[in-house]
């Protein structure tokens, strides 16, 4: 354990936001007797190991430790670095693995090497490969392992170690078996190939980047290095061309027919091969059944929405008799659908389907937007399976074993419980560091819309004793919530509060958890509703704590969409906001990607981009504004900040820009992450007096 003498910003950076040492990536053996998982050995240790928990004894054992395998992680393939950036992976070592259906064989990549572990004998071997390996996946039968190298999809026989190339790229712009940028960044699909249940074929994505515009991410701090060339599908421009092929181990190749631009996901189980697709406008989503022999596809289900359809992770699935497990927006709620019937009430918002085990479905859902509970559906009934205490829960189930991870406002970090047929079988330990903060969080409903809002005070603050300067700390956009009944959501906010601020965190219109109508309020306008709701939440918090909040000194900080919202706040509402810190802000939506931007604003020619961008407001700036941007950011590129800075300069408006050399959309470097927090506090204290 680290001594408490270490500063919170340093510890926050070193522990990767207190995620190191937390168990994750669970796979339960079909008999329910074993749980395989990932975890680092300590709260400051970034090297992830592979472990196994024995359900009967409650004991765990180490399966694979990258240090024992003498692997150097400085040598990651570029595609793997990109994959980790898309998945916001904070750690190193074994950050992903796959197993066969029986969970007796596991495969993982380390620094481009392919490793296979026998989970019975604990024997680990490194296989010879044609090049550095991405995304190895064991076949369901455990006889083969697939992997991608150099854009080619390979399959290796695990017995004789003979390597076959299933598909070779026809040009440098083509890859087989990898998810394209948009799938990984915006559709939560990190994979590009799927094994058949019999292990005799794979469904593989062929991605052709050649239609996509070329961008160049330079490293100005190192002028001797050439810029990184990247294909970036900006709003209104061409996407990667995606095709699908059934590639059999006998060498045959069958193209799969589908019309839509986006491949959302695929699934190949005992009930057949299915794909989910969306057209470019994202107003419909189609589930197609595919005949692997001919590649022909037929529509099984189609859902439409005049604004956009939502992608719910974990579907499609099937009950043991083949009945479809699906999720869709029906009668004003995100609902679980079994066959054709919604089985959850419209007031319970379904977030994700986690597992289908026989005739039972495990899913995450919440009635209150600050809570995400774990529910099970079976035989026409739904039951709550996570603890009754409000919090944020997830889990997995197989063979009568249930793994429940959860965090509440009172828990120091995530807790992982294992149950077998409802009886507790112990915990999978977390080695996460203690944050050492005294959390002072009040969850309230603020404003006319009852916005979920968190108000944080310094740990020593006596209510009513002094009016504190206020710091709004939002994300405020689609897909992400900040106001949750989980302690981990507020660590940085509490640290800012302890520097002498009342911190207000609010989830306005556009954020998830309150149902489709609330989310769709940002259609064609990503600026007005989110900003109005930050103002409403601030005023609602001040009404609740009139003697503690000083509304004459209000700052706002945010990253990504939150950075956009922070800059927007001082530009459009300087009467309310007196200083802003905008980290990696989207300043011009034409510079952001197709799938995300067009979902909310349509195509650029439809005319909804100007009112949601910041440039037209540049001349209005008369408050202190600090812009922060990682120059290596390949998601929200640094051009966003640099162009806004140019517009501000042209309007004669003073502002500050902090460029972060070598930093991507995440800021993992310890010293950078620590000093970034300290610099923000310094800026706010000076700006707000």
Report what the structure shows.
The chain is an alpha+beta fold and 689 residues long. It has 10 helices and 44 strands. Strands 37-38-40-39-41-42-43-44 form an 8-stranded mixed β-sheet, with helices on both faces. Strands 1, 2, 3, 4 and 5 form a 5-stranded mixed β-sheet that branches. Strands 14, 15, 16, 19 and 20 form a 5-stranded antiparallel β-sheet that branches. A hairpin with a 4-residue loop joins strand 19 and strand 20. The two termini are 38 Å apart.
SSE blueprint and pairings:
Elements: H1 8-14, E1 24-28, E2 34-40, E3 47-54, E4 59-64, H2 78-86, E5 92-93, E6 98-99, E7 105-110, E8 113-118, E9 124-127, E10 134-138, E11 144-149, E12 152-157, E13 163-167, E14 174-176, H3 181-186, E15 193-195, E16 201-208, E17 214-217, E18 228-231, E19 241-248, E20 253-256, E21 262-269, E22 272-278, E23 284-290, E24 297-304, E25 317-318, E26 324-330, E27 333-338, E28 341-342, E29 349-357, E30 360-366, E31 373-378, E32 381-384, E33 392-398, E34 401-407, E35 415-420, E36 423-427, E37 441-446, E38 451-456, E39 468-472, H4 491-498, E40 502-507, H5 516-519, H6 528-544, E41 549-559, H7 561-572, E42 579-583, H8 594-601, E43 625-630, H9 639-650, E44 656-660, H10 670-688
Parallel strand pairs: 3-5, 39-40, 39-41, 41-42, 42-43, 43-44
Antiparallel strand pairs: 1-2, 2-3, 3-4, 6-7, 7-8, 8-9, 10-11, 11-12, 12-13, 14-16, 15-16, 16-19, 17-18, 19-20, 21-22, 22-23, 23-24, 25-26, 26-27, 27-28, 29-30, 30-31, 31-32, 33-34, 34-35, 35-36, 37-38, 38-40
Helix pairs in contact: 1-10
